[in-house]
Amino acid sequence: MAKLTWHGHSTCTLVAEAGATVVIDPFFDENPACELGVADISPVDYILVTHGHFDHFADCIPLAQSTGATVIGTFEIAAFLQTQGIENVHGMNIGGGHHFDGVGYVKMTPALHTGSVHGDETGAYATLAAGFLIDMEGKGFHHAGDTALTRDMELLRGQVDVAVLPIGDNFTMGPADAARAVDFISPKIVVPIHYNTWDIVAQDPELFRREVGDKAQVQILNPGESLEF
Ligand code: NI
Ligand code: MN
Asked: Is the pTM of this model over 0.70?
C-alpha cells in the first residue's frame, strides 16, 4: 500500500509502496491550514517541487537542510537550490522522467501556470510550473501542482489511480474545471487541494464532489488526514 497525507494547501506526504517518504510542495511553517512545522517533518527521502511560488516552495530549503532529502524539480529550481548550498538536488524538465529508488518512475507533467522562484532575487531562475506523475510499480499517482485546465490532461488517462487536483480557483482551476480535468484524467480516486488556505481560494469541496458525480471517487481530506491506496 501507498499512503498519501494532505497537510493543507498543496503540501502532501506520499509514502511509496517501495518505502521512500516523499514530500510534495513543502509549505509548513507559514501555511495557515497546517498545524505541523518543518521541524516536525522527518525522515524524508525526496522533496518534489512543482514550481517555485512561495506557497509551494517556502520550506524547501529548511526541509532539505533538516532531512538531507534529495530535491527534485525543474533544472532551474535545482540550479537555484545549489546556489543556496543545497547539494542533493535532481533537475528534470517537463516530459522527462527518472527512476528513483524507493519510489518508482517520476515524470514531470505539463502545468499551465507561471513560474518565478521564491527567494531568487535575480530572477535568473524563473521556470515553468509542472506536475508529477509517479508510477509506483503499477500504481499511478498524479499531483497536478498549480494549473489551468488543459486538454493535455487527457494524456494521463489510464495511468492514474489517485489524482490530486487544485480546486481553489483564482490562481488555479476552480471546482468546475477541476471536474472536467477528472473527466480527462479518469482517476479512480481524486483528492481536492489548494483551497480554503486563505479567503481568496475559499471553496466548498462538496461542490466539486457534485460536479465530479460518478466519474471518480472524490476523497475529501482535512489537513493532516491520510488515505491508503
Ligand atoms: Ni503557484
Ligand atoms: Mn499555489
From this structure: yes
| Dist. CA 159 → ligand 2 center (Å) | 24
Please report, for the chain, the start and end positions of each structural domain, with discontinuous segments joined by +.
Answer: 3-221
C-alpha grid cell for residue 73? Answer: 524539480
13 and 36 in contact (C-beta within 8 Å)?
no
pLDDT tens digits for range 164-178? 999 999 999 999 999
What is the number of other CB atoms lying within 10 angstroms of the CB of residue 60? Answer: 29
Closest ligand to residue 25's CA: 2
Angle in degrees, CA 193, 44, 133, rounded to 5:
45
- Please report, as a single letter, which amino acid is at residue 166: P
Topology of 3-221 in CATH? Answer: Metallo-beta-lactamase; Chain A (3.60.15)
Which ligand has the nearest atom to the CA of 9?
Answer: 2
Residue 118 Cα, ligand 1 centroid: separation in angstroms?
A: 10
Amino acid 92 reads M
Give percent above pLDDT 90 in the chain: 99
- Sequence-distant (≥ 6) Cβ neighbours of residue 161 within 8 angstroms: 139, 140, 141, 187, 188, 189, 229
**Any residues with CB less than 8 A from the CB of 98 and at least 6 apart, and which?**
90, 92, 105, 106
